[in-house]
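Weekly structure sync, notes
Attendees: PL (lead), two postdocs, one rotation student
Agenda item 3: pending single-chain targets
PL asked that the sequence for the first pending target be pasted directly into the notes so everyone works from the same version. It is reproduced below exactly as submitted, 370 residues in total.
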Amino acid sequence: MGGLAAVDHLPTDIDAVVSLCRTGTEQTNREQIEIWLVDQPGEARNPNLDFVLLDAADTIATLRAEGKLVFVHCWQGASRTPSVGALYAARHRGVSVKRAWDEVTRALPHGAPQAFLREAVTRLGRRMVRAVIGEENSNSHPPEDPASVGKVANDAPHPSLADEPDPRHHQHDKPILYIDLDNTLVDFGARLETITQSIRDEYEGRVDEIPGIFALMPPMPGAIEAYRELCKHYEVFILSTAPWGNPSAWQQKVEWVQLHLGTAEGTPAYKRLILSHHNELNRGRYLIDDRPHNGAREFGEVEGQEWIRFGAGEHGEARYRDWPTVVRHLTGDDAFHGPQSDIGARSENPDGPADAVFSDSRPTSQTALP
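Predicted structure, written out during the meeting:
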């Protein structure tokens, strides 16, 4: 971490640069990602402050997951850089917000983050971690070498970062598992077959906007049994996307979950439904989803996370073709034998009916499976 001037004289082992301010057009020949973060308060200057801060921290994590050494900088390395560094540590390195600020301050003793940045990072970091862990023993560690912290891209976690639990498990005793709805828990293709051809023709290319399409969908074979079984081993959440052009789908997805998994407190999916177009922003151990869209692929690219592609897949591969296979993979329980799926049997396309209708090449906002 540092200021703009250091970009002209980077060590040879730096692979990538994350720039939080303007740079010269020929200042570096390394891979460079520019993120527009203004070092002045006010919504007019930073209209999407939270998103930009999270994007910067996540960009660093993505580069690190690719094995790259990363240099993060702003103009002076005094405000924006330590702010993003602290959020990266709290969000991706398993430290409390307080510890993150302490370590960044050691690395950049001249740092003086603007009050609005400090407030935003503290708020976002605590939202992710949910509890400040390790503050009680923060004085038990010997002084650390600032250089080992300031080099964000160190291969090994900094000693004071490695001794804290992964933030993905601060709130839960078991690993977090997300499961998609459409063509994962829900048999979208079977429901589509009940829609008259004239309506399907009218909504060609956007069948997810057919009024009522998400109502009365049957579960995938073995899905409900598998969900209940996985709840014994994981903290399970349903993570799905509802089409922007079909507001009724948002309500119908809630109703589907309540119909098949219960409405009362204590039932396995009670208040565990997340609807988002940015699944990559969630943190957990696994995501089960039949398609790579809306952040599913990116979720699996984060270190310590895995995207499990449910169904036959785009090339007909069948590693996780049905729910018994998924459960055995996640639990190691060969005794689980739920109903076998007939994914791919209704269409010559190995991806099954959904991908036979919806092309991955269309923009996300127009794909039939959100």
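Discussion points:
- Confidence is low (pLDDT under 50) at residues 129-170, 341-370.
- Residues 176 and 230 are 11 Å apart (CA to CA).
Action: rotation student to compare against the earlier draft before next sync.
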